[in-house]
Amino acid sequence: MKKKKVIIIGPYPPPIGGISVHIARLSRYLRECGFKYTVIDESKEIKNFVIPNYEQVNNLRVWIGKSIFSCKNSIIHYHSRNWYDMFLFCLVSKIHRLKLIVTLHSFREEPSKFNLFKKLSFKYCIRNVTHFIAVGENEKDKLVRYKCDINKISVIPAFIVPRYDIKDDKLIPNLVWNYMKGNDINISANAFKISFYNKEDLYGIDMCINLCYRLKKEYKNKKIGFVFCLPEIGDHNYFEKVKKEIKKKNIENSFLFVNERIPLYPVLRKSDIFIRPTNTDSYGVSIAEAIYYDIPSIASDVCDRPQGTILFKSRDQEDLEEKVIDVINNYEQYKAKVEEVQIKDYAEDVLEAYKCVL
């Protein structure tokens, strides 16, 4: 293996998702800083463009096996939450005396419910990972609850400032741009794919549909447009169910699903309001991105949110609707407030974590 300073392991876009976008932006930042790194992409999706310092692996565990015999790096930075693979990386780090950093982008599972082997792997990782980066206080608190040394945990949100590129605008289908141009008010939301938590719609697609229905009744003299970016469908049965609900509520012209793998930030820049009605979360990078572009953003109160976020009670449909209506009715006031917010770029904090462990 080539001698590099850092190996970053995780998905690289496409697919488009919070972790893959974070890794792409982090690698760009490290490259600009002159910091040596290699990205190991475990997504298995073929890329049709050249990526600097990039390698794709078909089988991560085979790659880890090879690393046990030959690894000349100083840091492994792992971005997934597979405790078996993390255990193997711990062994690599022990054998080659290198540092293992793990970023927990979420931590929803309960280790007390793991099977025996997974529980043993988890406990070993908690003791032997060099440093954990938790993207929010919830992830940090959970690590501490399971006896992780608080001194080897940093809370660093995953937001890294996007670089506007007109080429990214061209990746958005004309259908989306034409749809948004035809609306008086554009509201956007997103999800990586349909998921459930505690048997509820994790990303609140159902709440968005009900919100759209309420707004259409509330503002009969305005054309409301709701753009929901959903690059991966996931649960097709549920997707068909929500599409039937959209038809039943007669909001087909007001609610647009975008099921293509496109960057989110161009859509955010053209939105009037962004919402994130998740019933569990770690921070909400897309919220930080929207606020960075001065878009009033409304999110559930399930975790610490970026400065400037307007909060509503999780899974409380009425509270969400009232917050959105208040923003629409007092838009200039909310727009002025969000323009005053300075969203931090956390790329430098990650670099400092590298320097500290070295």
Question: Can you put this structure into words, describing what you see?
Answer:
The protein has 358 residues and is an alpha/beta fold. The protein is built from 14 helices and 15 strands. The strands form three sheets. Strands 3-2-1-4-5-6-7 form a seven-stranded parallel β-sheet, sandwiched between helices. Strands 12-11-8-13-14-15 form a six-stranded parallel β-sheet, with helices on both faces. Strands 9-10 form a two-stranded antiparallel sheet. The longest helix is centred in the N-terminal third of the chain and has 15 residues. The model has no long low-confidence stretch (mean pLDDT 95).
Which tags fit this structure?
alpha/beta, 14 helices, globular
